[in-house]
Amino acid sequence: MRELEEQQKLFRWRVYAEGTPQVIDCETALTLPAEVRFSFTKETEFYSSAAKHICSDTACFAEYCQEHWDEDEFFGYQFLNGLNPMMIQRCTTLPKNFPVTDDMVKNFLRGRSLEQEMKKGNIFLSDYKMLDGLVGNVVNDRQQYLTAPLVLLYCNPHGMMLPIAIQLRQKPSKDNPIFLPTDSKADWRLAKIFVRNAEFGVHEVDFHLLRTHLLAEVFTMATLRNLPSPHPLYKVSNLSCTSWYDV
User: Fold this and answer.
1) pLDDT over 90 percentage in the chain
2) CATH of span 57-195
């Protein structure tokens, strides 16, 4: 009981952001007790392995991205093989707030209708509605802007995932057009850039920070504050502060 009392003094909760799980009350991992930090050997090994991986793989991939980033094929490829493959879903019915018509996209569907391709399972949707209404931060005295796009994709007979329609905000209106691959190159490119920006934001805040680090930290903190070190579950949990390092 005395150990738990000490643990509860060392590991305290604080609010990270309203509406999200609480986190440990510390500024950096270095202020945590030594027993829950990486050892010097482990930390050195961690960064060494990361550096080797980056040096060996990133250069080739970066060169490929520089050559192909603006192509629709690569844009579609990233929905399954990019940083966040969690948003794309097979579309069987178009959302009411995404009024894509057959006339808009028939040239990209080999003359077939949206309904026909949806029945075949070839139409996919990525909807970033969770970003709707959010205001961007001010960075270096400049206001940043967010969109909450809807993206319609078509999986063609060659297995390529191709974007065929993009709407950048959730409510359709004259000021919120549906962008198509047949629009000007600059407009279509900018629409795709806003989609990539939205995907990065959703991935980092939701899937990475919230669902990985903050969620895991709740269980880690509960274990540290409620189970003494000799407890079997404490030993089995193999605690480390990996999640705190990134946060």
Assistant:
1) 54
2) 3.10.450.60
